[in-house]
Structure formats: structure tokens, C-alpha cells
Amino acid sequence: MTTTTLAVLVPLLPFLGAVAGLLLGRTAPGFVRPLAVLPTLTAFVLAVLVAVRQGGDAAVDAATELTPTGSVPVYLALHIDGFAALVAVLVGLVASCVQIYSTGYLRDDPRYPSYAALVSLFTSAMLLVVYSGDLIVLLVGWEVMGICSYFLVGHYWETPEARAASLKAFLVTKLGDVPFLIGLFALGTDAGSFRITRVLGTVAHGGLDHPTVIALLLLAGVAGKSAQFPLHTWLPDAMAGPTPVSALIHAATMVAAGVYFIARLLPVFEASAAAMVVMAVMAAVTMTGSGLAALAQDDIKRVLAYSTIGQLGYMTGALAVGDRGAAVFHLLSHGAFKALLFLAAGVVIHAAGTNSLAAMSRMSGLRDRVPDAYWTMTVALLALAAIPPFSGFFSKESVLGAAEHVTAGHTGHVPAATGWIVLVAGLVTAFLTAAYATRLWLLAFRGHGAQAPDHGRQPLTMTVVLWVLAVPSLALGGLAYRTLPDWFDGGDLAPTLTTSVLGTGVALIGGLVTYAAWRHLTGLAARVPLGAVAAHPEGDAGQVEAEAIATHAPAYGDVASAPDPADPGRLLLGPLHRHAAVGFHLDAVYTALFVRPVLAGASLVRFLDREVVETYVRGAGVLPRWLGAAVRRAQTGNVQTYVSALLAGTVVLAVAAVLVATGA
Amino acid sequence: MHLAYPAVLSALLFCTGVYGVLARRNAILVLMSVELMLNAVNLNLVAFDVWLSRTAEETLHSGQALTLFTIAIAAAEIGIGLAIVLAVYRNRGTSDIDKLRDTAEGHGSGTDGDAPAAEKAEATA
């Protein structure tokens, strides 16, 4: 088979698996698991084959016209360069792990068939985005991911949190997608084609008429999809979905789609210096804000969600300084270790019976209950905190290195200011990242108090994939930073001495400060009992998690934070903690700006409909009503009256007919 | 015999029938009046058939044939009618059609339930 055929099969197989799963889910339950796992696994193998054949050489391009549109034609096109090949491998790997993990995690879930089919559909859409060489076809995958995300976040739709979260995720990403669509049209019109190769060719010759407008419009869609400030608020709430969904969608793939999109079209963004500065500021605000917010979260998954936002900020920062190699390098390593973190967090939640870090910190022996999750999570958290030699170190250093390179002013098309913004924010975030990673690890695994509840052995499917993902988390960065430039643009990804020392230094300080704060507070934790634990020894992990999410707000007063005085994050943040716990009141701002006006408008429309329009409708009914009442009076029920009326009518008609006939 | 005699007779019979249908209270007498009307028409049919076939060269006497049909159908009709009257009498203890006013507006159970009560009272008054 040619590389093109293989590449076509990669998105197609999970799609067919999804269709078959949706059709056969009820009638043939035995086929659901193979139909979920095998196509995804095959797609992963094929993606690896495509990557091996492509080998970082010239991009593979193939296209056939999908439909004549009358103006700019739409092509069914593939454009597989090194970026696409490697990102597809990551998507295939994470999706396969998630599908295998889900067979154990949602073992007893009655809605597993539709869940697995949607995950397959989602995987297929992401692979389509990755391989597509046409922006409109890319948009199709982009939107299919959005709707799959909506369904999967709302998987536990019995709980109001999940319903609200899925709606929020959908609406907020759509808020970005509308400008994104307009941006795509503007780009296609300016370039005369939706083909990525032609667009890039046009940009290279300076053929774009409105680069700033287009770049900012596209950036809005990317901010929505990749959860960048100010459209990031949906991501922490999306943690109301099942953990494998969080791992797949909200860590490794969908949120990476935005970053990947910019990486593909980076020259378009580079054509506008203003857009690059906006991107840098957006990345800096996102990074630091999410780092602070992550320190204040109590739900273990929300910590990881804010961490995802921050790491995506790093990628956007790398793009803002014009180094897409570093951005995609970080995307790859982050995809691996963040998927691992989420999947391990799912195991921990199942074992602990709660998603609250405050409750976990009052449990001892959790690490002995789930040794696989403990060790793999330790690896992933070290990678997240960018401690050498874990993979996160190399990718994060490549980002910081790229930023430092720009501050020196060597690059013409990127302002030095963006380099400074990204570098400073990146270092601050490295400190915060290490701090919240340490806090998460200490609270989850170093708790004191009663024994953790026994939920039995974790299913093998859930623990094996953790080790599979631990390998790239541990070794990807160190092994790949020399070979990856061949796949990418050729820019150097090796860590530089200055940024390595600085980055690792602040990370170590962050970890140590958190450790000191935690030691300072351990005595206090024992004196303040806190926590509610869902005990379902026989239930599967999904059920335990759904219950934990549903009981968090009643038990601790809020879905995000807990009133735990022994929290090291509370000590570190000081008065900032109150604001960080609610995401710096951004949701309240949105409520004031959008939700209240919309609700007021809705009640106005309701008033107009009920009181004004309906009055006219009622008025129109009055006359027929009166006529009807008058006619009803004739209905006496006496047959003889009717016959008399009939006779009288006949006589009148007969007389009239005679008069007409005689011409009188 | 001139056509005027049977025509006048049938007109008188028909008028008697109409009067009976409109004025009689007993359902059986109303049915009898209906029969009078029918027979008035039969008389007309026969008389006009004879009158018209006198000048024709050949005729089917279709008027007289139709009369036979009418008589047969009237017999069936009166059978059903009397059976209904009998059933009504057994059910209600009366065959006075002034008292059989179930179809009057306001008697039925489902006649516009949501209309205001005042309107209904006005309608039945």
C-alpha cells in the first residue's frame, strides 16, 4: 500500500469503528469492546507506519477535488509533513490507551457502547484535523471534535454539573469558532485556495491583504479550542466528564488541535507582528493565571485541568516566538505525560473514593493501594515540573530556549518584546508548575490519618496503559531532542545552559517551598477532620467518580475548592487563594457580561410574546367566538323545528327559482 | 281522467304529510305522516307516467317501476323507523319527540369545556 492509502485509512478506521459501534451497540453487546479498541489500535499502527515512511522528508501531498463551490474549491487533501506524522502517532497512542483503559474504567456503565463509539469518532476527527491538507476539511474535523466533546463531557448527564459543563464547553468553544470560520473564509479568499500548501505559498510571497485581521480571527478560534485566556473557562468545568475523556480530549488531543493549527499555519501568523504580540500576551496571562489557579484547586482533576491550560500556554508561547518545532515538541511530550496523569488520577479517585485532595491528604496508605498509579504519576509529575531527565524538561527548555533566542533580537519577523514576555512568564510558570505538582503529589500520596478505603484490585486494563504511557513521559524528551529537528523545521531543540539552569532552578525552588509549607502544616491537617468518601467496593471506577463529583459541592461547599486550612496552596497564595480558587472570577465576569444580558433579553421576549403577541391572537378569536355562540342558539334539539326551517328554506328557494325563471 | 285530479289529490296528501311531520308529537304519527308524503309522490309518479306514455310510441313505464321500488324501500324504512321508536319508548318510557332533545346545545358532556360558564349559560338559554 502506498503511504497515501495508509494515511487515508488512519482517520477512516476509527470512523468506521464508531459507526459500527453506534449501530451494533444495542443488538450485539459482545462486539462493542473489540469495535472500540481494534480500529483505534490499527489506526495507531498505521499512523506509526505512515510516520516511518514519511520519515521527516518532503511532505506527502495528495488531493482530489471534493466539490466545486463556484469560487474557492474545496479539496479532500492530505498534507503530511513531519509535524502531522508525529502528532498523528501521539493521537493514536493516547486514543488506544484511553480505549483500553475505558474498558476497565466504565466496565459496568450501561452507556458504554455509545461512549466508546463517540471516543472513536472523536479520534477519527482529530486524525482528520492532523492529516487534512484543506482548511475546510480540517474545519469539519474541528467541529466534529467539538460536538463529541459536548456529548462526552455530559456522559454523566444525570448530574447537573455534567449538564452545565457540557453546555458551557460547547458554547464557549463555539464563541471562538465563529470568528475562526470567518477567519478561514477571509484567508481562503485572500489566498484563493483552502489548500494549506497554496495558502503557505501565498503567504511566502506576501500575498495576504489583511494578515492582522485574519490572524486575530483565527486566534480566537484557537483560544476557544486550546483553552487559552480568555476562553479557557470551559476546560476546568469539563472535568465533570469521565476521567478517560479528560485524558483524551482535554489533555492530549482536542486542546492540542488549536496549537497544532497555529503550528501548521505559523507563517500566516508571522505575517502580522501585532498578532504575535497578542499571542504572546495571551500565552503569558494563560500560563501564570492557570498556575496560580491550579495551586488553589481541591479537585485533583481540576488541578490537572489548570495545569493543561498552563502547558498549552507554553505551546502558544513557543508559537508566539515563532518556533513551531518547540511548540510541537512540547505538545508531544505533554500529550504523553498529561494523558498519563489523568489516567492515573482516575485510578487514584477510584481507590480513594473521592476526588478531593483535602480528603486524600487525610488518608494513609493510598500509595500502597495503587502502586502502579503512584509510580507512574510520580514520573509524570516530574515530567510536568520539568525536572531533568524527564521528557517535560527537554520540551519546556526548548520553549524557553526559543524565547531567549528571540530576546536577543536575532530573528527578524518576531519582536523582541514577545520573547521577553514569554520568557518571564515561562519562568514564573515553571515555578508555579513545580509548586502545584509537588502539592498534588504530597496531598494525594503522603497523607496521614485513617486507612484509605479498599476498592479491590484495579483492573489490569487500567494499570498496564499507565506503564505504556510512562515510557514516553520518562524518555521521549531525552531520546528525541536530537532527532526531532529533522522532522520539524530543523531548528535546534537542545536545551541551552542559561535557560536550563534558570528553569530547573525555579522548578526546584517551587517544589521545595511547597514541601516546606506542607511540612509546616502537617500537624494542622490531623486536627481538622475533613472529607467525604464514596464507598462502592463493588462499583466500577466510573460510578465512584460520578458520585465523587456530585458530592463535592455539597460536602465542601464548592466544586473547585475545599475549606482546608492545612492546604499548602492556601499558605503559599495567601490572600490570593480566594480568587484563585474560582479562577479569578472570570466566570462571574462572563455572567455579568453575557449571561445576565441574555437572560434579561429572554425575559423581555417572553413578556412580549405572552402579553403583546398573544393579546392580538386572542382578539382575533373573539369575533368567531361570538358568531359561534349565536349559531349555537339554533340547536334546540327539536327535530320538528329543524324540519320547519328546512321546509321554509325550500319554499323560499322554490319561489326564488320560479321568479327567476319567469323573469320577474 | 284528467291529470289535474290525481295531481291535486297528491298535493293534498303531501300537505297533510308535511303538516303531520311538523305538528304531531307522537313519533309514530310522524312516521305515518312521512308515509303519506311518500305515497303522494308515488301517486304523482304513476299519474304522470300514464299521462306521458299516452302520446309516446313506445314506453318502458319507468314511472310505475320506480313506484314499486319506492314502495319496497318505504316498507323497509318504516320497519326500521318503528323499531327505533319502539327502542326509544322502551328506553325512555315515551315516544314524544318534544321530549327527545338530547342533541340540543348544552346537553352533551363534551361541548366546549374551556368556554366560560357565562357564555354556556347564554347559549343554552
From TrEMBL, chain A:
| PANTHER family named among the record's database cross-references | NADH-UBIQUINONE OXIDOREDUCTASE CHAIN 5
Predominant place of localization: membrane
What GO molecular functions are on record for this protein?
Answer: NADH dehydrogenase (ubiquinone) activity; NADH dehydrogenase activity
Domain NADH:quinone oxidoreductase/Mrp antiporter transmembrane positions:
132-404
Give the NADH-Ubiquinone oxidoreductase (complex I) chain 5 N-terminal domain ranges. Answer: 68-115
Protein localization: Endomembrane system; Membrane
InterPro entries tied to this protein: NADHpl_OxRdtase_5_subgr, ND/Mrp_TM, NU5C-like, Proton_antipo_N
Protein's organism: Streptomyces longwoodensis
Q: Which GO terms describe its cellular component?
A: endomembrane system; membrane
Keywords of the record, alphabetical order, are:
Membrane, Transmembrane, Transmembrane helix
What is this protein's record name?
Answer: NADH dehydrogenase
Please provide the Gene Ontology terms (biological process) for this protein: ATP synthesis coupled electron transport; electron transport coupled proton transport
- Specify the protein's topology with respect to the membrane: Multi-pass membrane protein
Automatic annotation (TrEMBL), chain B:
Give the main localization category.
membrane
Q: How does it sit in the membrane?
A: Multi-pass membrane protein
Where are the annotated segments for Disordered?
99-125
One Pfam family assigned to this protein is: Oxidored_q2
Q: What does this protein do?
A: NDH-1 shuttles electrons from NADH, via FMN and iron-sulfur (Fe-S) centers, to quinones in the respiratory chain. The immediate electron acceptor for the enzyme in this species is believed to be a menaquinone. Couples the redox reaction to proton translocation (for every two electrons transferred, four hydrogen ions are translocated across the cytoplasmic membrane), and thus conserves the redox energy in a proton gradient.
Mind listing the GO molecular function terms for this protein? Answer: NADH dehydrogenase (quinone) (non-electrogenic) activity; quinone binding
Family recorded in the similarity comment: Belongs to the complex I subunit 4L family.
Catalytic activity reads: a quinone + NADH + 5 H(+)(in) = a quinol + NAD(+) + 4 H(+)(out)
Where can this protein be found?
A: Cell membrane; Membrane
Q: What Gene Ontology cellular component terms go with this record?
A: NADH dehydrogenase complex; plasma membrane
What InterPro entries does this protein map onto? Answer: NADH_UbQ_OxRdtase_chain4L/K, NUOK/Mnh_C1-like
What keywords is this UniProt entry annotated with?
Cell membrane, Membrane, NAD, Oxidoreductase, Quinone, Translocase, Transmembrane, Transmembrane helix, Transport
| Gene3D superfamilies per the UniProt record, alphabetical | 1.10.287.3510
Could you identify this protein by its name? NADH-quinone oxidoreductase subunit K
State whether it acts alone or in a complex, and with which partners, per the record.
NDH-1 is composed of 14 different subunits. Subunits NuoA, H, J, K, L, M, N constitute the membrane sector of the complex.
TM segment ranges? 65-89
EC code: 7.1.1.-
The family database entries (PANTHER family) matched by this protein are listed as: NADH-UBIQUINONE OXIDOREDUCTASE CHAIN 4L, NADH-UBIQUINONE OXIDOREDUCTASE SUBUNIT ND4L
Gene Ontology biological-process entries: ATP synthesis coupled electron transport
On whether Chaperone is a keyword of this UniProt record, the answer is no
**Source species of the chain:** Streptomyces lasalocidi
